[in-house]
Every structure is written in structure tokens, then in C-alpha cells.
């Protein structure tokens, strides 16, 4: 693939990821307001921590898009955030969203591998995959406790 075409494709995929991050932030903060019950406090805290991880991801991706010469999206992904006070339902929705993010970043990493002088971007995306996989593990752990 010609370099410009590849760059364009990476920018498009990064913009999809940026929209997913924006939606994830809203999802986690929204859900955190509706967690109730005996174990609510640590779960609320954890959801807010994950939201702040997603904020870091959003900022990193936005910056990378600009560095590549693209224009960052200001839209949300098409995620439908459910209104529920059922913690299991919320965690399952979050897990689904995290798995989408992991897949998206894995695809982006494959594209980035084809780019020359890609180290900074490669490490940024690699780090994001690690973070999202940690979120997946954490949500699975919380779900197992329910
Ligand atoms: Fe993220
Ligand atoms: Fe995440």
C-alpha cells in the first residue's frame, strides 16, 4: 500500500478508536452513578478510575491523529449506553465495549507495523492494547464476584 494511503487508513481507524474512547468515558461515568448496594463504593471508584484511563487514551489518540496530519473526530461512536441499575448488566456492557476497543487497537497495530519509522505510534498503540486488556480482566473479575 502506498505510504499516503496507509497513513490515511490509520487516521481513519484512529478516529474510530477516538469515538469509542469518547463513548466509553460517558458510559463509565454514567454507569458509576447508578451502582448501588453493599459493594457499591469500590465498584464506583473502579469505574471512575477506568473512565480516567479512557480519558488518557482519548488524549493520546487525538494527539497521534494530529501528528499524522489528520483531523480528530469530535463525534461519539454508535454505542448505545443502557440505562440500568443492574450492576451485572452494566459490567457486561462495559466488557463488550472493551473487547471492541481491543480488537480495534489490534487492527491498528497491524497497520502501523507496515508504516516506516513507526516506533512512537507503535508503542502508543501497544500500550493501549495492554490497558484495554487490563480493563477486560478487571471487568471479568468484577463480574465473577457478582
Ligand atoms: Fe480506552
Ligand atoms: Fe478500556
List key phrases describing it.
146 residues, single chain, Ferritin, mainly alpha, binds fe (ii) ion
Structure in words:
- The protein has 146 residues and is an all-alpha fold.
- It has a single domain, classed as Ferritin (Up-down Bundle).
- It has 4 helices and no strands.
- The chain has helices at 3-32, 40-67, 87-113, 119-145.
- The protein starts with a helix and ends with a helix.
- The model has no long low-confidence stretch (mean pLDDT 96).
- The structure holds fe (ii) ion (2 copies).
- The site of one fe (ii) ion has 6 residues, from helix 1 and helix 2.
Q: How would you summarize this macromolecular structure in one to three sentences?
A:
This protein has 146 residues and is mainly α. It has helices at 3-32, 40-67, 87-113, 119-145.
What is the terminal-to-terminal distance?
48 Å
Count of helix runs: 4
User: Could you say how many structural domains there are in total?
Assistant: 1
Poorly predicted sequence stretches spanning 5 or more consecutive residues: none
* Run of helices and strands: HHHH
Instruction: Report helical residue fraction.
Output: over 70%
Question: What small molecules does the structure contain?
Answer: fe (ii) ion
Shape: elongated
**Mean pLDDT, all residues:** 96
- Tell me the radius of gyration: 16 Å
CATH topology: Ferritin
CATH superfamily (homologous) name: Ferritin, core subunit, four-helix bundle
User: Strand-residue fraction?
Assistant: under 5%
Structural class comes to: mainly alpha
CATH class: Mainly Alpha
The CATH architecture name reads: Up-down Bundle
The largest β sheet comes out as: none
Number of strands: 0
